[in-house]
């Protein structure tokens, strides 16, 4: 069987599109919540290269800014997030970007359908990692972060404030959930939703080409 080398990339883009659609639906249902939503946005004058919280940015009308990094897993039931996976997928970049942001009122999050491995679960609760528990169960991870110049104080600040949202819906479940909201709450016709899906697929292809 021939495997499409772009399939995992396309799935990631599709998942990102669904997340953006959910934010837009939330905005439609709550018009006073957001003032703008941007995709692939990099703030100016950060003083760093390779800003890594750029997938989706949503500015609230109260002045707070939400930064999202979206990571889709093709096989979430077997491809778990462990400490090595966190490092390999960008933890150091997320930390660098988090500390470079200048807004006092910022909300930074990883969104993924993937699951934590059994070891990291011991240090995780309510979308946050506990530094003291990481030091107990994943001492090597803390050592790697300290070797990059992060003090205990900075590590605690990051893990206390950065949201790790694991176990998000699968792509199919996510799409069906949004369809039902569009049908029932926003009264969009099936033809309208199908047309939106076709447009999102077109955007995915553009992302792959460029």
TrEMBL record:
Domain of life: Bacteria
Protein name per its UniProtKB record: Restriction endonuclease
The organism of origin for this protein: Chryseobacterium gotjawalense
């Amino acid at each position: 069987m021939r495997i499409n080398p772009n399939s995992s990339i396309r799935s990631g883009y599709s998942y990102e599109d669904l997340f953006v659609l959910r934010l837009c639906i939330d905005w439609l249902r709550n018009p006073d919540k957001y003032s703008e939503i941007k995709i692939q946005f990099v703030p100016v004058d950060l003083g760093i290269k390779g800003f890594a919280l750029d997938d989706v940015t949503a500015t609230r009308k109260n002045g707070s800014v939400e930064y999202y990094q979206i990571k889709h897993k093709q096989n979430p039931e077997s491809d778990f997030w462990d400490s090595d996976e966190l490092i390999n997928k960008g933890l150091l970049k997320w930390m660098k970007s988090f500390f470079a942001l200048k807004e006092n009122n910022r909300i930074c999050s990883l969104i993924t359908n993937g699951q934590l491995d059994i070891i990291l679960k011991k240090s995780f609760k309510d979308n946050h990692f506990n530094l003291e528990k990481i030091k107990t169960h994943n001492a090597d991870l803390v050592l790697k972060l300290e070797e990059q110049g992060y003090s205990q104080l900075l590590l605690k600040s990051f893990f206390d404030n950065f949201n790790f949202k694991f176990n998000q819906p699968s792509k199919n479940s996510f799409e069906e959930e949004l369809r039902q909201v569009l049908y029932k709450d926003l009264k969009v016709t099936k033809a309208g939703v199908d047309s939106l899906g076709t447009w999102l697929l077109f955007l995915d292809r553009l992302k792959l080409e460029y």
